[in-house]
Protein: Pteridine reductase
Amino acid sequence: MENPVALITGSAKRLGAATARHLHQQGYDVVVHCHHSFDVASRLCASLNDQRQDSAKLLVADLCDPKAWQSLAEDAVMAFGRLDVLVNNASAFYPTPVGDITTDDWHILMGSNAQGPLFLSQYLQKHLARNQGVIVNMVDIHAERPLASHTVYCMAKAALVAMTRSLAIELAPQVRVNGVAPGAILWPEAPLSEQDKGDILQQIPLGSLGTPDDIARTIAFLVASPYITGQIIAVDGGRSIASASKA
Structure:
């Protein structure tokens, strides 16, 4: 029997790589996608193929480039001849203080976090429907609890939340669409002060960072749950409800 196939965008490292590894362990063949991180993504594919021959393939595309969406979708299906799961994980993240926001910021943040996922979902929905497939979108708790100086990013993630719920209605019953909203899982690649880290940890009822595997397991749960669609699961140690209680 053919193995099910998952495309995980932005899966060279961090949460995307953890998701690729976890789904691979569950028997999926995986299409690893990257834009800039080719060397890291190549090593990930090699390690997965060492575990199971010809079970991982790498595609490179810029999700902010409209010309890339259809070709990425077509190449992902051709990689193994089918597609069962799309994980829209790729995401640009950086501050955009009001007064300094540029059209390039809009292009990059909206493109990677909302526009790319929408058009990939559109191009792939017929292929996913053939296998009662699943789309899982990587949202963010800050889609509903905005982060200061990150207006464009928060807008993009809020759009992704709306897209998740809208597509869940439109693509049912053949395709289910859900989202995962991570809280503090890994520290940002841009360095934070120890004071900033402490302030964040104080906002988390469970008192610690999560792990990439927490996100990967939640995605796998949504993929394997045939009666869940249109839902956003916060994986944040209780941070979102603690923030709500202080509002």
